[in-house]
Every structure is written in C-alpha cells, then in structure tokens.
Write a structure and sequence with these properties.
By secondary structure, this protein is mostly beta strands. It has one helix at residues 20-23; strands at residues 4-8, 15-19, 30-31, 38-39, 47-48. Strands 2-1-5 form a three-stranded antiparallel beta sheet. Strands 3-4 form a two-stranded antiparallel ribbon. It binds zinc ion. Residues 9, 11-12, 14, 32, 34-35, 37 line the site of zinc ion.
Length: 49
C-alpha cells in the first residue's frame, strides 16, 4: 500500500495527497495541483496521515 498523506492547500483549501517518504517533514515545498501555490507541509491547515 502506498505511503501517502493528504494535505490541504492554505491558499485555495484544495486537498491532494503526497508521498510520505519523499515529502513529509522534508522541508520541501508541495505544489498545489489546483492553484499552483507552493507551500511546506507544516503550512497546511490540515494534514491527514
Ligand atoms: Zn491551492
């Protein structure tokens, strides 16, 4: 089973998932597929793991 987490974009509130091993707690910015906003996982108002 894929190891993923869901994030909520702080700008448009869109939800999408990322691969945990690549992006969680890595200090790498996530790219929102809805509005192209870039943000860190810690900046997400909601995370589901
Ligand atoms: Zn967004």
């Amino acid at each position: 089973m894929a190891n993923i987490f869901w994030v909520t974009c702080p700008k448009c509130r869109g939800e999408f998932y990322c691969h945990t091993q690549e992006l969680r707690h890595k200090g790498i910015k996530l790219l929102c597929p809805y509005c192209s906003h870039q943000f860190l996982d810690e900046e997400s108002p909601r995370i589901m793991e």
